[in-house]
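Form 12-C: Joint structure prediction
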Amino acid sequence: MLGFGKRRKRILVAEDDANIRNIIQFMLEGKGYEVLAVGDGQAAVEGIPRFHPDLVMLDVMMPKKNGLEICYEIKNDPKTVHLPVLILTATTQTSQKTDDYWRVRSRADDFISKPFKSADLLARIEKLLANQPDKPDEDAAKRFRI
Amino acid sequence: MESASADLEGAVQNLQDQVQDLLVLAESSRRILVTPDLEGIARECFAALQRIAPRAARALYLRTEDGLDFACQLAEGCGVAKGELVSVPLDVIDWVCEKRRHTMLQAPDGGMRVLLPLPTRREVAGLLELRMPGGEEAFSPKLLEELQVLCGQTAAAVQNVTLLSALIRERRALGRTSAFLNNVLEGINHGILALDAGGLITVMNRNAGSMLGVEAAQLQGRSYREFLDPEAIKVLDALVEQTRVQGFAMDQQMPRRNEQGIDLMLAVGATALQDPEGEAGVILVFRDMTATKELERLRALDQMKSQFVSNVSHELRTPLTSIKAYTEALTGMVEGEMPQKFLKVVDGEADRLLGMIEDLLNVSRIESGKFKLAWDAVDVREMVESILAVSKVQSDRHQIVVAVDAGVPASVPMDQNKMKEVLINLVNNAVKYSPDGGEVRLEVRRQEGNLRVDVADHGMGLSPEDQKKLFQQFFRTDQAQAAQIRGTGLGLAITKGIVEAHGGTIRVASEGVGKGSTFTVLLPIRGSLPTS
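Section 2 - Result
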């Protein structure tokens, strides 16, 4: 049971491949995270202010909006600058050069390349979340104020 | 009366003699002047002398080619050989040349010698020397006068011949130059078309003819408007006009169909032709771009192929990511030895596919030259040690022995990841292709300016033919395939690509099938890190 004023950590997952999206959701929910899984970049951008995630996991190549672009926007918005971003790449060495550029530009907190091991993915997520202070459950607070 | 008559007779005789001499001289002159060579002129001159001074020894000297001295052309009776220089003191010669007058000298044998100039308008072309016994009286004023006339004629003839031969020489040289220039013009593999100020063709080489589909030789003095189609005329008119106004013009494209009916893409450039006389023309240069275009197309195709390989690899990784992730999830969910074993096979095969995709990408990258090295000062010992921890290298049936010589520098510039890949691949191969086990030696030492790496095994070895083909893409030996050892045949091609990108070499040695193999890598030890 979670204590009062605390909530389960929320992770927004944006990945256009449904199978990968589903297995990530399965892995994360199995570890007790609350997951919002979306299939394109636009949905990810719209999901952030509504879902209030503690961490965003973005695939690079997605319809409508590229994961690195979204990350760039997150890191350039004072409201979301502290939101940890984990980028999921299927980087081949051919695209390395543009990726290297975006790695720096996007200011992503971490990268994990496909295919990945669930243990590796979970370890990275835990590490990124550990750096974040626990936030009070604003939604719950709102509910209780009524 | 008697004496008067005798005097008259004498005078008449004298006059007759003079007329005779003058006739002789006139005849000699005519013959000398029509003689086309120096040798002949000298002979004709001497023939005249034989008549007017039959007793005199004689020598004709002509100016040497450098113009500084006089050499004997012909001599009779005075012991001078042809080519010999005139044996008179220099100041005497100078005086004769300057005054353009004859002089008399004492001959060494006691007689008299007279030296006469061969005067031309500009200079003294030669000297005539006559020797006679006796004193000055041997040369009468009349004789001297005749000699001067003869010298004048001889000089004129000599001058003519000299000028003529110079002219002929120049003409020949000019002919050679013109033939040479013509060869150059025809040898250029572009079409050249020169127009005069009036737009008429002055020069057209064969290439221009064949590119434009006309007979180049027949078109001098005509306008290209007479034989080209309106499209081509428009292009050339614009170029010529632009060149007349600006002095140059940017290349224009001009599609043509040549004599054989093949479609060509020509690039036409134009430059102004400068003439010292002020008559400006235009030179048009036609270049056949068809081959260049084809190369461009192939290059684009090649780029497309690389892009395709890269995209395909990316697309292949996505389902493999799913397969691996779901397999892993399932592994945590199901129990029992069999299901676990099966899932392991699925996972292992997915890994194999991933490896192949990576290999294909690497090959395509090496081929397309997109292969970039990340140079770093690398601790070779540490790198070699770290290889032993890699699972691909580990084996229960092999003893892997690593020896790094003390002479190996502490750090060597290289791309650490890629060279590590090379060593892993070589050791992995050594293990893979010695199915009966045995020792695998990885030795590193310094050999002159190189880092030398040897990887030796006691495995299945290689025939001499297979050694030659071993580094080719997709090559696999019959033995390896018969032994059902898996592989794509890309590993060594990639290894070679990496080594060569470092400026190094790789070779294989094997005593034959069943006798093991040794791979040797030589990597130049650079003094500093190359800037990438």
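Section 3 - Comments
Chain A has a mean pLDDT of 81. Chain A touches chain B at residues 17, 19-20, 23-24, 26-27, 61, 90, 92-95, 97, 114-118 (CB under 8 Å).
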